[in-house]
Structures are given as C-alpha cells and as structure tokens.
Amino acid sequence: MTKLYINGIEVEIEQGASLLEAAQQLGIEIPTLCFHPGLSAYGACRLCVVELGDGRLVSACTYPAQEGLRVRTHSPRVRRARRMLIELLLSICPSSKRLQDLAAEHQVERVRFAVRDERCILCGLCVRMCAEQMMAHAIGFVNRGYRRRITTPFDLRSDACRRCGGCLYICPVCEVRCQGVGAPSAVCGSCTPPAPTCPPVYEDLACYMGATGECGTCVRGPRTPDSHSPTVAGRREKV
Q1: Gap between the Cα atoms of 168 and 126, Å rounded
Q2: Which candidate, 100, 119, 131, places its Cα nearest to that of 174?
Q3: CA distance to 85, 197, 209, 226, per residue, from 204 (Å)
Q4: Which fold has domain 1-74?
Q5: For residues 162 and 159, what is the distance between their CA atoms, to the nearest angstrom?
Q6: In this structure, are residues 91 and 67 in contact, taking their beta carbons and an 8 Å threshold?
Q7: How far is it, in rounded angstroms, from Cα 24 to Cα 39?
Q8: For 213, left (φ over 0), alpha (ψ -120 to 50), or beta?
C-alpha cells in the first residue's frame, strides 16, 4: 500500500494507482473529460490537474501515487489552470453541453481565444474505446499540432468498423448545448451561480462537502467584480 496526503488528508491506496483514484477514494471530485475507468489513462484534457508539494502541476489521471506525496486538488493555482483549460476547450467546441456545464460549474464567463468550433477536443476516448473495448482499431489520430484529427486509415471507409456506436456513446462533446448549434456566444452562462460567500480563510476545501464555494449549501450573494474570488459578505448558513 502507498500512503500519501491529499488536501492534508492521509490516504492509503494500492501501489500503482493514480492520484485521481486516490482522490476518488476520499470522495474528492476532480473534473475530467478524457478519463474513463474502463480505458487506459491518456491525460489529454488536463482538467484533472493537481498541485504537488513542490509546486508542479500534473494530471491526476496519469500521475502515480507515491509514498509521502502531498497533493492539493483545489488550490487557487489549480482552479486558475482549470478555468483556463475550460476556456481553451470551449474555443474548440462551444457547442458541447458538457463543456458549457463545466464552464458554469467553474464560473467561466468568457472565452478569450478565437473560436474554431471544430466539435472535437481530441480527448482520444473514441480511439481508445474502439481499440481497447471493441478490439477494432478502426479509427485513430492523424497529423500533428493544430492539424491533428481523428479519422479512419487513409480517410477511407474502414472494414474493421462494426458500426457499434461505441465512439459516439463515450464522446464527451456529442451532446449539443441547450441553445443549439447556432448559439449567440461561446459561453452560455445561464446556469452560472452567483459568487459564493465562503470566508476567505478556507483556501482549498471549505468543509467535508468539497471545494470552497462549490458545495451548493452556503448562502450565495451578488457577484463581485472578480467573479472568481469569494466574497466575505454574509454568513454561512444551510439552505
């Protein structure tokens, strides 16, 4: 067994397990788009980024748990990184309901990058599903950089494809946002909650419920000029 500390909480997990699995064992939710428990870890979306004791940011789904390691899953630096990643993903695929929900959850209100609307975030879930679960290897990645995409070999109809639909089933961005494909902006924002009133003394986790301001049980006040910073007005109450 490997012993480590996540948000100051001691946890023991089997050797070889990832930081994401260790956090899930404690009931700590870490957002991710490219991870699936039935597939190999890939680390493409980077949303599961966490902060190590030495200040490094690593993807929790691919980084192995190590003896004595100290990890912060919701530090201010981690939250800023996740918001930036959500912005980048929205610029690629603003039509995704899943991404819009993540934007609302993490209070992302704008996209500061050119919107491409490619409707694929290259998470690789469909490729791994086809290869590892369906044993077909009918699709894969081609090209590099901004030209990278997923297709069949030589862009021809693949005889290995059984039309099982597994690639569509596991795709995190196939579900269209509520406003449809012709939405007026890259970020919907209709589901974004007001800024939480958690006292600033809680840096990472406000209580056993989860990250500061994300548990949904505290009184929420009006949004402040910096919508990413919790206000100090009001008091914590159960609703």
Answers
A1: 7
A2: 119
A3: 19, 14, 12, 18
A4: Ubiquitin-like (UB roll) (3.10.20)
A5: 8
A6: no
A7: 17
A8: left
CATH assignment of 125-170, given 3.40.50.720, 3.40.190.170, 1.20.58.90, 3.30.70.20? Answer: 3.30.70.20
* Residue 169 token pair: 């089933």
- Does 228 have pLDDT greater than 50? no
Q: What is the mean pLDDT of residues 163-191?
A: 85
Which residue, 155, 173, 170, is CA-closest to 92? 173
Confidence grade of residue 212 (pLDDT, cut at 50, 70, 90):
low
Structure tokens at 5: 């500390």
Map out the domains of the chain as residue ranges: 1-74, 82-118+177-192, 125-170, 193-239
Q: Contact 177/205 with Cβ under 8 angstroms?
A: no
Confidence category of residue 175, pLDDT binned at 50, 70, 90: confident
Residue 192 DSSP SS3? coil
Supply the pTM of this predicted model.
0.79
**pLDDT-based confidence at residue 116 (cuts at 50, 70, 90):** confident
Residue 105: is its pLDDT beyond 50?
Answer: yes
* Chain segment 10-26, per-residue pLDDT in tens: 999 999 999 999 999 99
Pairwise CA distance, residues 230 & 239, whole Å: 18
